[in-house]
């Protein structure tokens, strides 16, 4: 481990996973690397954007990731540990309902955009409703074993767009290495998100992320794993949760029902519009699987933290 | 509210939901009612049982619920609030792998039984591995609107076998009322369980549960909801989590993969057998939905609390 620190700059980004991409940096394990991350719209949305700009998004330019970084010594079959060290400040963010995208896509056909001012170090949704800022990278991964260009959208055995909200400061992510040097990239930084990311977007916010790599040999994992050093959601837990449930023979449908009921609750209890409630659920509500064994009905619980309400 | 307290005894149980059942007790809202609960095997398993007894289980006698209790004034369209007040002591419990049942049923075809000694107020799985006891009712609900006898196994719009591990002391469950008097029953008490209950059983333990009813009129909910007064899992959070993930176009398959990887980890890191690891995952590991929007792959995370290891 050294005190040296590298920076990968925001223009050093790419779209999709391709193991033929030239590395923008080579590093030894043990050094800290800072990545400047472009927001998930790839700069298409800004503080003054409206729902019309969401409708006009060019999907070929969404979800850029910064990298790839070649980690010296990493070989297929190794495990690359990514220690999440820190995040830089973020000034603003956005959450959108994008037509055709999201858990309830059929019920929300119109584009919608919420712009967040994060400059005060907090994320106020509306007067009396404040989301704790807890940054993590929505997309973090390594090159795939298969050649060619692969869409950035789905997560796979290389990690990628996993949208795991718990990859916050102090977490350690373990990724299987598929190609020489691993070819690590990261992007899609989120200022906050609930487990599930139900509307399809989080508080999408450009910021820097600093990580440190470690290599583990003679270990082998098929898919990503992670370690959290302490309580997952201390900032949200203190005042408990209002929880809706949904049951169905299909787990996705159960998740849809629980989310729908939570949206209804948010509308009724806090006077939000449907779109506002869907967006708030996406950035603050956690989906848990209560049971997947009582055939034919599985049950999903949607946890709304009461701590976000003043 | 009165200081009066009622007890519904263990012999006052029934199998399945049937809105024609005669109530065993009528109460006003506001009083505390204690229910003596028979274990989920209906007394077929005991401290000396073996895997052979699991194979011989008579399923017509599983998952008895104590009740039904007629709540005076409850009418269809009301909401019955069930305040979880307390649980009695429990001396022992069991966790079984039941052939044909559970998230990984195809991979665990043989019966398996773990008997827990809970008499010391703790649930030791093996030397150095201890599960915090945190009782809740696996099955809690009211009569269904439809006439006839309905299997107890699946949860439905009446609640029932929801296996929501968070319905612990202090939680408040809201159930839609479908028939006059609601006809409330409860059973299937668990000493501990993870979100998901992956092997199909929890620490199944006979005990008493005391609840208080409240009625809400002019509210209407389609399916059960609940409120937690504070942090969901403070007893498990302190030392963080080891988390496996699984991605798949089907959420159930993603849950299966994350569970399988967690079983592998438990075997490798702690020297457990496959069956032991599956059982431990069922009583201690929480399934969370990380994302359900990055088509075509959804991602499930399986959270193993490090606090259970000495």
Description:
Two copies of one chain form a homodimer. Chain A is globular. The first copy, chain A, is built from four helices and 19 strands. By secondary structure, chain A is mostly beta strands. Chain A has a six-stranded mixed beta sheet with strand order 1-4-15-6-13-16, with no helix packed on it. In chain A, strands 2, 3, 5, 11, 12 and 14 form a six-stranded mixed beta sheet that branches. The mean pLDDT of chain A is 97. Chains A and B meet through strand 16, strand 17, helix 3, strand 18 and strand 19 of A and strand 16, strand 17, helix 3, strand 18 and strand 19 of B. Strand 16 of chain A pairs antiparallel with strand 17 of chain B.
How would the blueprint of this fold be written?
The structure is a homodimer of 310-residue chains.
Chain A: E1 5-8, E2 13-14, E3 25-27, E4 32-37, H1 51-55, E5 65-71, E6 79-87, E7 92-97, E8 112-117, E9 123-126, E10 129-131, E11 136-141, E12 159-160, E13 172-176, E14 184-190, E15 207-216, E16 225-228, H2 234-237, E17 241-248, H3 251-270, H4 274-284, E18 286-291, E19 298-305
Helix pairs in contact in A: 3-4
CATH architecture of the largest domain in chain A: Sandwich
Taking pLDDT < 50 over at least 5 consecutive residues as the criterion, the unreliable ranges of chain A are: none
Q: Which sequence of strands runs across the widest sheet of chain A?
A: 1-4-15-6-13-16
CATH level-3 fold name of the largest domain in chain A: Jelly Rolls
Q: What share of residues are in beta strands of chain A?
A: 25-35%
User: In sequence order, what are the helices and strands of chain A, one letter per element?
Assistant: EEEEHEEEEEEEEEEEEHEHHEE
On the 0-100 scale, what is the average pLDDT of chain A?
Answer: 97
CATH superfamily name of the largest domain in chain A?
A: Acetamidase/Formamidase-like domains
Query: Percentage of helical residues of chain A?
Result: 10-25%
């Amino acid at each position: 481990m050294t005190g040296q620190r590298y920076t990968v700059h925001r223009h050093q980004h790419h779209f999709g996973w391709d193991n033929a991409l030239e590395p923008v940096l080579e590093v030894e394990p043990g050094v800290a690397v800072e990545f400047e991350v472009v927001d998930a719209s790839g700069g298409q949305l800004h503080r003054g954007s409206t729902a019309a700009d969401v409708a006009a998004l060019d999907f070929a330019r969404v979800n850029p990731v910064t990298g790839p970084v070649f980690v010296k010594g990493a070989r297929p079959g190794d495990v690359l540990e990514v220690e999440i060290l820190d995040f830089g400040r973020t000034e603003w963010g956005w959450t959108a309902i994008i037509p055709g995208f999201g858990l309830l896509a059929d019920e929300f056909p119109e584009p919608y955009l919420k712009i967040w001012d994060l400059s005060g170090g907090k994320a106020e949704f509306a007067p009396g409703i404040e989301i704790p800022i807890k940054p993590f990278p929505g997309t973090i991964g390594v090159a795939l074993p298969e050649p060619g260009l692969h869409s950035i959208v789905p997560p796979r055995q290389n990690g990628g767009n996993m949208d795991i909200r718990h990859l916050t400061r102090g977490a350690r992510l373990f990724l299987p290495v598929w190609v020489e040097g691993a070819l690590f990239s990261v992007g899609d930084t989120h200022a906050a998100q609930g487990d599930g990311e139900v509307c399809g977007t989080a508080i999408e916010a450009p910021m820097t992320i600093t990580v440190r790599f470690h290599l583990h040999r003679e270990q082998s994992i098929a898919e990503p794993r992670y370690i959290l050093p302490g309580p997952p959601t201390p900032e949200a837990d203190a005042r408990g949760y209002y929880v809706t449930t949904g049951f169905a023979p299909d787990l996705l449908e159960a998740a849809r029902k629980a989310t729908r009921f939570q949206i209804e609750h948010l509308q009724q209890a806090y006077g939000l519009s449907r779109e506002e409630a869907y967006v708030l659920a996406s950035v603050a509500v956690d989906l848990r699987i209560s049971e997947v064994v009582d055939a034919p009905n599985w049950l999903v619980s949607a946890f709304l933290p009461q701590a976000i309400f003043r």
